[in-house]
Amino acid sequence: MTNGSLYREVPPTAPAGAALKGGAGLPLLRTEGLCKHYPGVDALVDVDFELAPGEVHVLFGENGAGKSTLISILAGANQPTRGQVYANGEPATLANVREARARGISAVFQEFSLVPQLTVAENLFLGAEPTKHGLLDRGGEIKRAQELLERLGFPLRADRQVQYLSRAEQQMVEIAKAFRSDLSVLILDEPTASLTERETESLFALIAQAKARGVGIIYITHRIAEIRRIADRVTVLRDGRKVGMMDAAHADETTLIQMMSGRPISQIFPKVKYAPAEVVLRAERISTEDGSVRDVSIEVRSGEIVGIAGLVGCGKSEVARACYGLLPLAKGKVTFAGQDVRGATPRRMLDLGFSYLPPDRHKEGLVLSRSSVENVSLPALHLGAFSSGIFLKRRAERQTVSNLARELQLHPFDIDRDVGTFSGGNQQKVLIGKMLTREVKLFVFDEPTVGVDVSTRVSIYQLIAQLCEGGAAVLVISSDLPEILHLCNRAYVMFRGHVQVELQEGQITEDRVLSHFFERAA
After folding, report:
1. Can you name the residues that pair with 38 across neighbouring β-strands?
2. Which one of 74, 188, 389, 456 is least enclosed by Cβ atoms within 10 Å?
3. CB-CB contact of 236 with 60 (8 Å)
4. Is cis: bond before 412, omega within 30 of 0?
5. Of the candidates 134, 158, 178, which is a domain's last residue?
6. HSE-up of 251 (CA within 13 Å, CB side)?
7. What is the reported pLDDT for 411?
8. In CATH, what number is assigned to the domain containing residue 298?
């Protein structure tokens, strides 16, 4: 029992007939008093956790709550400072990843571990290459890899080099690696962050198949809808400690958010004072050359927050990218701050005051091997505030970035630290900081809270509200419906490249938005 009767420890819901490994009723994995201490930081404090055969057990919590530390220990990639791990009821020392895999424990981490120059097949069997007569059997390797991909339903070619794959396709390769051998425990860390709706459905089907075979699945997600869809139990972590564990059937959004963040949901979204004024961005019947946007018209005014909603692949991101100059237009007109900007480059749009935050911070937003200072100042280095001729004003650069980092509550507060070493939520803060180094008329946030915790979400939502109330125009593109419902005073809903409907303040309800997600209105 934890925290009174609200967070009740309940038994797992393993499917009937699940193959119990290690004896009936024994968990596949269990931790007792698990601790992990780093200099100055307790990443885990006395965490008890268990995983039963044939269940999906979700780990839920903010970035920095200890989820990644826990799964890294269970996957053999890290060692606890104190405490014990049990596998099938017996004490186990998972000294390294190879030993964990030998026990049937396989992990798919958020940060990929692929070799870009190798093929899909070579990555799948790296370290376990098939041989024939003492030599590498490349033909057999490709054949086995292709059979595995087809069995999993992944539309990939086994002989293709990984460096030419999209992030979603690389995610499929990582998942396929986990299914290469006999599984007992599968660990998935935010596996759907880069997947489309269709690819996500394929993953959920694989999870159902694994559960039916008695595989236990540890699943990390920030998406409450996924918990409702696939989870059996949920363990919530906060500040390295276990807050509670509950049956997923009882895990409503209000309870989970309050457990995770220590604050009620009413404090998540700010009250925004809208004051729509002049039109800053107007797109008139635009279509892109690739067909992802077809005959779309939108406008965004200063002093308001406009949303674009729709399923993944509906074209909502492409509308902003076309206006920003990242996608070529086949027809239509884009006007920004009173100027016709058809054919303008992103650099030109940025100089005019159009700032775009991309949805993939790793691929398009950040230089992970460089410091926060260098990342934040990068879009504004040619401005007088940061340079004089060919010389950079290093002191002014550091002061500006330091002030922004403090305002955005960067943690840890170290602007010289490589961005790749920060948590996902703090990387997102650095990305947002890049938008704030110059005068901006329009802020476009494309999936602004993907893979970030609730605390960071609150900070981002408050910033968006402040920008709007300060007179900026704000466009929020999101697959997270509550962001559209609670932040925006107007919203467009898209389906297959078209705008289905424009909703005004007071009309933006869950039922109205969802009714236009799947088919064109009559």
Report:
1. 41
2. 389
3. yes
4. yes
5. 178
6. 30
7. 87
8. 3.40.50.300
